């Protein structure tokens, strides 16, 4: 298992370009940036090269449009296709392996059908080497968001049935949605391609809330998970004081 740093959340006290140096100094080899679009694309590309870091994940759509997403919006296919192409271009330029496809708001069968159609199209259009991920987001943090349950995510993945579409697991959201982040990973581990961690209920650093991280890391090891584990949480005043989880992997 390999630690990664989400630079949209970690080191919030530093200007964005300086977070890459901080991550490298802390021992990270890879980072996530949720929305590296617009002027941040060029800044990110330079910083990655300067500090020898790999960008593993970004989100779609870009905040230049609608951050919550179009994928499950009825009638949103045109907007979704235009925006996902922007994400493809950005991911290829920056070398990202994963694009988290945000579903946006919606409910019911119409939203489900829209998401299946849009995600199937995106999977077929995606450049080689890029995996699209779905991440359930809890309704406290994201009220009205369509993909708000891991069972629903599994249903969508089964309907899409593409090798380059997978589940993105986040311990914070898993705990908030289902009450047991460890059990969620055990239940859906065969679908999971990427892992993010944060504690509940405040998306604080690991070990400050309700998630049993000792058990979670044990289950990850037992499952043979060998991918990235990205810290995506609010670290408080000093990010360096929250990085003990790196040595537990």
TrEMBL record:
Question: Residues in the active site?
Answer: 135 (proton donor/acceptor), 232 (proton donor/acceptor)
GO molecular function, a single term: hydroxypyruvate isomerase activity
Pfam families xref list: AP_endonuc_2 (PF01261)
| SUPFAM superfamilies hit by this protein | Xylose isomerase-like
Q: What biological-process terms (Gene Ontology) are attached?
A: glyoxylate metabolic process
Keywords associated with the record: Isomerase, Pyruvate
- Record InterPro entries: HyI-like, Sugar_Epim/Isomerase, Xyl_isomerase-like_sf, Xyl_isomerase-like_TIM-brl
Q: Which domain of life does the UniProt lineage start with?
A: Bacteria
Q: Where is the Xylose isomerase-like TIM barrel domain?
A: 20-248
- Identify this protein by name: Hydroxypyruvate isomerase
- Highest classification ranks of the organism: Bacteria, Pseudomonadati, Pseudomonadota, Alphaproteobacteria, Rhodobacterales
């Amino acid at each position: 298992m390999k630690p990664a740093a989400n630079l949209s959340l970690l080191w919030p006290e530093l200007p964005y370009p300086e977070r890459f140096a901080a991550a490298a100094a802390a021992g990270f080899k890879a980072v996530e940036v949720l929305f590296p679009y617009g002027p941040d694309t060029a800044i990110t590309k330079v910083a990655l090269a300067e500090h020898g870091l790999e960008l593993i994940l970004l989100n779609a759509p870009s905040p230049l449009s609608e951050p919550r997403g179009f994928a499950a919006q009825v009638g949103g296919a045109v907007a979704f296709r235009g925006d996902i192409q922007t994400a493809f271009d950005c991911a290829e330029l920056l070398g990202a392996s994963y694009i988290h496809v945000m579903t946006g708001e919606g409910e019911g069968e119409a939203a489900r059908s829209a998401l299946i159609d849009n995600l199937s199209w995106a999977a077929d259009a995606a450049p080689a080497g890029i995996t699209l991920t779905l991440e359930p987001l809890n309704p406290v943090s994201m009220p009205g968001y369509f993909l708000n349950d891991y069972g629903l995510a599994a249903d969508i993945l089964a309907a899409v049935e593409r090798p380059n579409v997978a589940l993105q697991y986040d311990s914070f959201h898993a705990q908030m949605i289902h009450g047991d982040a460890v059990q969620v990973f055990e239940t859906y581990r065969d679908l999971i391609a990427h892992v993010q961690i944060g504690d509940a209920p405040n998306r604080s650093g690991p070990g400050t809330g309700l998630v049993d991280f000792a058990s979670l890391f044990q289950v990850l090891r037992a499952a043979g998970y060998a991918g990235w584990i990205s810290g995506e949480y609010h670290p408080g005043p000093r990010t360096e004081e929250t990085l003990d989880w790196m040595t537990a992997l």
